[in-house]
Amino acid sequence: MSDAARRPPAGLDTSVPNVARMNDYFLGGKDNFAADRAAAEEVLAIAPEIRTMAKESQAFVGRAVRHLVERGITQFVSIGSGLPTQRNVHQVAQSLDPAARVLYVADDPVVLSHAMALLATDPRTSVVRGDLLHPDELLADHELRRLIDLERPVALLIPSALQFIPGEDGPFKSVALLRDAVAVGSHLVIAHAVFDTRPEAAGPLVDIYRRVLGRSEDASRTRKQVLRFFDGMELIDPGLVYIRQWRPDNPLAAQRPEKVWTVAGVARKTG
């Protein structure tokens, strides 16, 4: 289908690339436009493994959701949700516990319109407009309060948003506010690209995403810096590791973990 035939939401400027739609392209999706594909190809020219990293991040979220459902977590809030794909959070969670409730949080018009259409008939799953940097507004959202009981444990999923937010915007404070608002027994799930093993790629990739996001700041981080997001919580085994090492379904999948330079971790609020 051509870009012209796709009928983007009214007011959406399809000439400006978007991170969520670029990720859709990395995953082999169709909900992207020429500007998204052009920017994504620039990224792939520098680091072709980004396509694999996108798929590995999606697989990690599935493993983390399964792990948490098996331990009694039945409420999930996924912040910075990408475009709907196969094996979404609600599909994984509800395949194990049909009563599981899932709220997606997104601010991209294409993501919101697709998610709203997909979830319109599912009373246990919903989507709201919002973002990580406005935690107070998110926590006060009527739909979140309707679907999610913050007096009971909840899993906060941040599968990719943090890696695009520079320190100047206060992402550590935002995560801490969300952590403080949820009940003891809640969990925080984070995946974040790091440049520990690919320092030479940092500059060129940061430049592309600065242009895409219209920002001048550098949002890149090392593993040690990502670890700070879990302050005040208890990381569960195996800790903050390269994403292939986080409870792989097949031990062979964890080989050469540094080749997919995204780290991932799950932590529990204990007090």
TrEMBL record:
<dbReference type="InterPro" id="IPR029063">
    <property type="entry name" value="SAM-dependent_MTases_sf"/>
</dbReference>
<protein>
    <submittedName>
        <fullName>O-methyltransferase involved in polyketide biosynthesis</fullName>
    </submittedName>
</protein>
<dbReference type="Pfam" id="PF04672">
    <property type="entry name" value="Methyltransf_19"/>
</dbReference>
<dbReference type="InterPro" id="IPR006764">
    <property type="entry name" value="SAM_dep_MeTrfase_SAV2177_type"/>
</dbReference>
